[in-house]
Design goal:
- There is one protein chain.
- The protein has 26 helices and four strands.
- By secondary structure, the chain is mostly helical.
- It starts with 6 loop residues before the first helix and ends with a helix.
């Protein structure tokens, strides 16, 4: 709690007043300044005492000064204690004013207990705000009328707004109950002379019964809301009288209508039960008649057109749906009227299943005939035999299920089902042949072999032929031959796929070429192990292919790749051998002294070095392995170079041997160390 002005500011102002008081005495005109006193005073008086200093140095002034300031401090302390004891108790009201917002409050939902709790709180606060508007503490006057008025105004205004909020809620609830009663009354005033309207009337009556219970509970809630509103504002509670009277009127009117409705239902119930019974009898006859219609010749003969049968089933379905709607309504009537002998409509359920089976049968027949035409009359190259197999398996399963369902309890087999079953079996009988003929691995050479064994059909590239044509030409008579050809084609296709995979490998396999040391135009091959590993794997695969019985038709391609990979292997062996020897000797013959001491060997190495440089430059520009390892002439040159390099190394060893024989200490040096010494001799 703060005061205005605060104690420090107040003491400072009083202190200034006391200081200014002493200054006032100094400003008073001195006695010596008057001419009447000239004869009584010494001439040329030099000392003129300061009244201001005299007062400030006075013990009485200082004591009074200190006493005044102490009094002010003590009075402020007493005022602070009083304020803490009196006003601090109302801080919760002050804080709530800062936090609470009525606009936000009324947007939220609140229970009656929440509203009661808030109004009780406001009431307690109003009773608590009883401190006086003015209090004297010593020289200080504490005025709190502004604080009291502010707190009182907030609590009174807030309480009044919450009461208005409660009033609105109560009025809305009363009007809601009145409207509900009014709706219930209207629903019980409708005519109910027919079976359907009578059933609706019973529904309305049952709904009214259930709703009435909830409305009574709501009315109890309204009573509680009124009591709470009356506790805090009788005037506001009294403003609800008109709405309350209307609610009471509607409730009483409902009770009357409800009793009349109960009596009306009891009087009319027997008549309506008779109507339901007769309606059920008519429905049973209609169901029986439609069941017989589903056994008509059009629907049970395999000679009928699917479109005709499906159109007839469409007409029957309209009747069936109508019967199902009637049964649904009649079930409802039986439940509402509490009929003792309830119709379970088992015949209608059986009719529904019978219709579903018959519909599915003719849908299958229609779909099968459409697909059968495509399988047997379209260009066979466009037929997906895998889908044919899947469809036939599905048709077999669904047809078998329909045979069991439709023929159950029948003395004779249903001809439409037998028709479909027979046709599906016929296609299923040819299914292995169809799958073999539809093998995607079959190539022109295979088809040519097949056609050589058929009647009246000759193979020509791009020939369009249907399965029907093939069967007419006797393809079924050579089914075993076609199976063998198809199996062979599959085996060959697997080999061709593997061969294609090998071809793709080598179309994407490159040498890794790097610069040799820091030279600009000299290169060597590195990371050769991966290529060698791939080569070993592919050569092993080629050898496996050669031994397979299905490799006969593509043996030439396999042998061609065997030769290619064999040459690549030999090439890499000679190339890497040449690279190792060249790298060793290039370092030796780069020394001029060695060239002079071994001129013949240096000349031979120069020839090899030129070939190596040219070959590696080409390889660097085009590093594809197959491109670099396919020239037999280049391969023979590598063989010659390796022989030449071996000869050079042999002569080099002989030369070093003569040096060691001349100077035995050289035996303790390696070839490289000895060559380094010899290259430095003059």
């Amino acid at each position: 709690i703060k005061f205005s002005p605060e104690d420090e500011e107040f003491r400072e102002k009083i202190d200034n007043v006391l200081v200014d008081t002493s200054k006032i005495f100094s400003d008073v005109r001195r006695v010596v300044a008057y001419g009447n006193f000239e004869g009584y005073l010494l001439q040329n008086t030099l000392y003129q005492p300061s009244v201001e200093i005299f007062i400030e140095n006075s013990a009485a002034f200082r004591t009074s000064h200190f006493a005044i300031l102490s009094k002010i401090q003590n009075d402020f302390n007493d005022a602070q204690t009083y304020a803490k004891d009196t006003y601090q108790k109302h801080r919760d009201i002050h804080d709530y004013e800062k936090e609470w917002n009525f606009e936000d409050y009324e947007k939220e939902e609140h229970s009656l207990d929440d509203i009661r709790s808030l109004l009780e709180r406001f009431k307690r606060w109003l009773q608590k705000i009883h401190f006086s508007s003015q209090q004297i503490k010593g020289i200080l006057v504490i005025k709190a009328d502004k604080l009291r008025n502010k707190l009182t105004s907030f609590v009174e205004t807030s309480s009044d707004r919450v009461q208005d909020y409660l009033l609105r809620l109560t009025r809305d609830k009363i009007r809601e109950i009145s409207d509900e009663y009014s709706k219930l009354i209207r629903s019980l005033e409708k005519e109910a002379d027919r079976l359907s309207s009578f059933a609706d009337y019973i529904d309305a009556y049952n709904h009214a019964s259930q709703t009435h219970e909830s409305l009574e509970k709501k009315s109890e809630g309204v009573t509680e809301m009124q009591a709470l509103l009356k506790k805090f504002s009788r005037e506001k509670q009294a403003s609800l009288s008109e709405d309350l009277n209307k609610m009471s009127f509607e409730a009483n009117n409902f009770q009357t209508k409800y009793a009349e409705a109960r009596q009306f239902i009891e009087n009319k119930k027997g008549e309506m039960i008779d109507l339901v019974t007769k309606s059920n009898e008519r429905l049973n006859k209609e169901v029986s008649s439609l069941s017989e219609d589903l056994n008509s010749v059009v629907l049970t003969s395999g000679k009928s057109e699917p479109q005709t049968a499906l159109e007839l089933l469409g007409k029957h379905n309209k009747k069936l749906q109508g019967y199902k709607e009637k049964a649904k309504s009649y079930k409802r009537y039986q439940t509402l009227l509490q009929v003792e002998e309830v119709n379970s409509y088992d015949d209608l359920t059986r009719l529904d299943r019978k219709y579903a089976d018959r519909l599915k049968l003719w849908q299958l027949i229609e779909a099968f005939e459409d697909q059968h035409q495509g399988w047997f009359e379209d260009d066979f190259a466009t037929v997906d035999v895998i889908l044919v197999e899947e469809d036939i398996k599905r048709y077999e399963g669904e047809t078998e299920a329909l045979k069991k369902s439709i023929n159950k309890g029948q003395e004779t087999k249903d001809q439409a089902v037998e028709y479909l079953s027979h046709n599906v079996r016929e296609v299923s009988r040819h299914l292995p042949l169809i799958l073999n003929l539809g093998n995607k691995a079959l190539q022109a050479r295979h088809w040519k072999k097949i056609f050589e064994n058929l009647k009246d059909l000759e193979w020509t590239p791009g020939l369009k032929v249907s399965l029907k044509d093939l069967l007419s030409a006797g393809v079924a008579d050579i089914a075993h031959l076609i199976e063998d050809i198809s199996t062979t084609a599959t085996g060959e296709k697997q080999i061709e796929d593997k061969l294609a995979e090998i071809e793709k490998h080598w179309e994407e396999t490159y040498f890794t070429v790097i610069k040799y040391r820091d030279t600009k135009d000299r290169y060597v091959i590195t990371q050769i192990d991966d290529i060698v590993g791939q080569l070993d794997d592919d050569q092993a695969a080629i050898q496996t292919m050669i031994g397979l019985k299905f490799a006969v038709g593509i043996r030439d391609r396999i042998l061609e790749w065997e030769k290619k990979l064999s040459l690549v292997g030999d090439f890499i062996d000679e190339w890497m051998s040449c690279q190792r020897q060249w790298m060793y000797l290039e370092n030796i013959f780069s020394a001029e002294d060695i060239k002079k001491q071994l001129p013949d060997e240096a000349a031979k190495f120069s020839q090899v070095d030129k070939f190596w440089k040219d070959t590696m430059n080409k390889c660097n520009k085009q590093p594809l392995v197959l491109t670099n390892c396919s020239n037999e002439g280049v391969y023979q040159r590598f063989v010659w170079n390796n022989n030449t390099l071996e000869t050079i190394q042999k002569h080099l060893e002989e030369y070093l041997g003569t040096k060691r024989a001349a100077f035995p200490r050289f035996y303790f040096l390696s070839n490289d160390e000895l060559l380094e010494i010899l290259s430095q001799t003059r």
